[in-house]
Amino acid sequence: MPRARCPICGRDVQVPEDVLPGEVLDHECGVSLEVVISDGKILLKPLEIGEDWGE
Ligand SMILES: [Zn+2]
């Protein structure tokens, strides 16, 4: 099973074998992580809630 690291808490995240880019995984620390696949590696990007687009 592929593994990735949570950018928020630094712990391992279990990633399903057939994960697709753009899929959202919930981690045990409470953050939602969006799957990004780059160069065959799985990266996780925290989903920003209430993102600020301007001031
Ligand atoms: Zn985490």
Report on this structure.
- Helices cover 0% and strands 40% of the residues.
- With 55 residues, it is mostly beta strands.
- The chain has one domain.
- The chain has strands spanning 3-5, 12-14, 24-26, 32-38, 41-46.
- A hairpin with a 2-residue loop joins strand 4 (32-38) and strand 5.
- It has no helices and 5 strands.
- The mean pLDDT is 89.
What's the mean pLDDT score? 89
Report the span from N to C terminus: 42 Å
Overall SS class: mainly beta
Q: Specify the helix fraction band.
A: under 10%
> How many domains is the backbone divided into?
1
Percent in strands: 35-45%
Shape: globular
Number of strands: 5
**Radius of gyration over all CA atoms, rounded:** 12 Å
Give a short synopsis of this structure.
Helix content is 0%, strand content 40%.
